[in-house]
Amino acid sequence: MLDAMPAGHRHRLLAHLRDQGPRSRAELADVLGMNRGRVLAELDQLVRSNLVREAGFASSRGGRRSTLIELHPDIRFAAVDIGVSSIDLEVTDGSLHPVAAVSEPADVRLGPRRTLHRVNEILAKLQVDGAFEQLTAVGIGLPGPVSFRDGIPVSPPIMPGWDRFPVRDALAREHGCPVVVDNDVNIMAVGERYGGVARSVDDYLFLKLGSGIGCGIFLDGDVYRGTDGCAGDIGHMWVDDRGPVCACGNVGCLESLFGGTALARDATALARSGKSSFLAERLPHRPELTAEDVAAGAVDGDPACLNLVRSGGRRVGSVLAGLVSFLNPSMIVIGGGLAGLGHVLLAEIRSVVYRRSLSLATGNMPIVMSELGPRTGVVGAAVLASDLAFGTQEQE
Length: 396
Hints:
Elements: H1 7-20, E1 23-24, H2 25-32, H3 36-48, E2 52-57, E3 67-71, E4 77-82, E5 86-92, E6 98-105, H4 112-128, E7 137-142, E8 146-147, E9 152-153, H5 167-175, E10 179-183, H6 184-195, E11 204-209, E12 213-219, E13 222-223, H7 254-257, H8 260-273, H9 277-282, H10 291-300, H11 303-327, E14 332-335, H12 343-356, H13 359-362, E15 367-369, H14 376-390
Helix pairs in contact: 2-3, 6-14, 10-11, 11-12
């Protein structure tokens, strides 16, 4: 039993070891600001639970050398970031250092059973290869609205067959450990704050531009998920009455006008109409055009590709300007697959946000690209898994 210490203090202790490495018992008591006897009793229980262990002696300071405490080396977290067209997975140790990593194409539209079966196959192979004996916890992100409390996706527009599928319970049964489920944008926001450019920033927005568009919201140092877990779903905010029908069924959503799927559609139309010679030359050699083709065209100076990127940047910027006026964040970080569109996109977004927001709100607010890049999601999933194992994230 681990009831001697409140969960919040226990998490601070374990998180300190996770982030700062081995520490003496006295140092941990000082960090927690608690009675040393109580901390010692808690550490004894954590040793028996195989969460921590003694790790030799601290450097001598002239007196009796203190014994160091470290996270148990057998702790393993599985961090899974499922995208519309990919699976990124890492197994980490207790300090969130990668032990093994796998990235491969996938199709989330094949449904939860086939997708999660593939996740389980990957983990089984990593287990055989020695990456872990037993998982301590699993963190997983999904590309759609998620009930964080229940560990299930809810009416995800681009995930047929996933509605209310018991993702958390299915993975927990398979791996015999606790599981935390969140949407992909939230885990990216957590990852960027933990180990990226937004570290130590308490109020910031993480904009994910991929097949879809979403926004992770950090307020007062915590993810804001909203009452039902769908806060930040800005891809389905209205932008243009004359826009195309969105996957959600509405007309003119931001995501229907700009995003990986929309860019592929528009790039193909430009190629077939001959309005982009660059894209027209590429079309016969590919099953379909993608955002990467548009990015290559923009770098090459193709006017039609540049127009697609700039038009999308203006639309995204107008939505972000409204969020800036409403939330007054101290930073905006842009990540996801479309971040590869580069500085043309970033410049357009910055221009609109800075022009359309109050100078007081933007005077000290940088808009920057993600520092972690493709690893942002798995880093965040690992953080959430560790928080669950260490006692602060509870899904009941």
